[in-house]
Amino acid sequence: MTESLEVFSPSIAQMFRWTSGRDNYKVVATRTDGNSRTRTEYDNIYSPSNGLIAAHYNYKGDNEPLFWSDVTFAIWTELSQSDGRSPKDLRYVARSNILNDFTSSIIYAAMTLVPKLTRVASFGPDDEAFMAVLGTPNGAGGVYLLMQHKHILGLKTISRVFVGYDGPRMANPFLVLEVADASSFGVTDPGPKSKNCYLSDYAAM
Prior knowledge:
This protein is an alpha+beta fold. The protein has helices spanning 10-15, 68-82, 101-111, 128-134, 137-148, 150-153, 199-202; strands spanning 26-31, 41-47, 52-59, 92-95, 120-123, 156-165, 173-181.
């Protein structure tokens, strides 16, 4: 793979200042056989050195027992360890090329809260848009990954969300979840009443 990360998401590449080369990341494509209804395709970008998982194109077939979070975590762990790093170093979970209508509508609503020419908007736990993004199918998928594998990743929380568009006229929406150690917020248990830890609220979505 020789393309820049900009091929997949110019905005995410700019956020991480990745403009060339493939040393910073790996693209892993997972495929299963089947027709358009049963075939599973998981295409994701991993960068242990930057603590980033970026989901680019993911489709789970009807008969596929493994979820995106299962496959992604296994690959993340393997790549992190082969790079001499800990899986706990995960700091960002991103989604580019978002096709889900509900997620797209939430990103559109969030972008109306910032100046018109803003390319990337960010929201913290005190912002209504923060919770709205985490409640989308695409946002909740990243949250579920953290919950499902906290025995390896450690207890994590989302400290900030970023949303925007890679294309003109609101085309190709994306989101980035900034991951932090829950202990940084004084959180020791991810219960639904904890202000700074929202993992259990969206685990089943």
